[in-house]
Design goal:
The chain has helices spanning about 5-20, 35-170, 170-190. With about 190 residues, the chain is mainly alpha-helical. α1 (about 5-20) packs across α2 and α2 (about 35-170) runs antiparallel to α3 (about 170-190).
Length: about 190
């Protein structure tokens, strides 16, 4: 705490103060020449007692409080550093997420365009297959219609010929016409 030399200095200052300032009055019948040293000794004793019994606890309290404040300040600095680190980490992750979202968007656009092209190509293929089936069906039905018409024509021709032959032809003529009609019917069945 305070050294002995410092207490001597405090005593001398109090003595100078007591000599300069008039004390004004007689204390316990003591002569005026004794009063300044007593006043200085009294003031020095009071300050020593104050420093000893109040100052030490106050100094220790203030030192403890200073250490507590220094600890709190260090903790606040650590928390600030952690917060800045977290902020930087969040910014970094947010930048990564934004880059990933942008990449996903680009990929989705590219995949969407490729899918649209594939759908268009598949539509063209399906359309060609449908047209081929329609053409095949038209050919098949045309062939069936021709066959049916040929048969019906041949049958009608045979009936009409028979009717005519029955009226005007001889039996030899009938055989020749019947043979020609049968040949025509056979060729119609074979698709000629």
């Amino acid at each position: 705490m305070i050294s002995l030399g410092m207490w001597v200095l405090i005593f001398l200052c109090a003595l100078v103060f007591a000599l300069i300032v008039p004390l004004g009055g007689n204390f316990f019948g003591l002569p005026d020449a004794v009063l300044p040293p007593l006043f200085a000794a009294n003031l020095t004793l009071f300050l020593w007692l104050l420093a000893r019994f109040v100052g030490r606890p106050m100094v220790s309290f203030l030192e403890a409080r200073g250490e507590g404040i220094a600890d709190e300040l260090a903790q606040a600095r650590r928390r600030l550093a952690e917060a800045e680190s977290l902020r930087d980490e969040v910014r970094r992750r947010l930048d990564e997420v934004e880059r990933e979202v942008e990449a996903l968007k680009v990929r989705a656009d590219r995949d969407g365009a490729a899918e649209a092209e594939e759908i268009a190509a598949q539509t063209v293929r399906e359309q060609q297959r449908f047209l081929e089936r329609v053409d095949e069906e038209i050919r098949r039905r045309t062939t069936e219609a021709r066959t049916t018409l040929s048969r019906d024509t041949a049958e009608l021709t045979a009936r009409l010929t028979k009717d005519l032959l029955d009226k005007e032809l001889t039996s030899g003529d009938r055989r020749r016409i019947l043979a020609a009609s049968l040949t025509a019917m056979r060729s119609a069945d074979s698709g000629d």
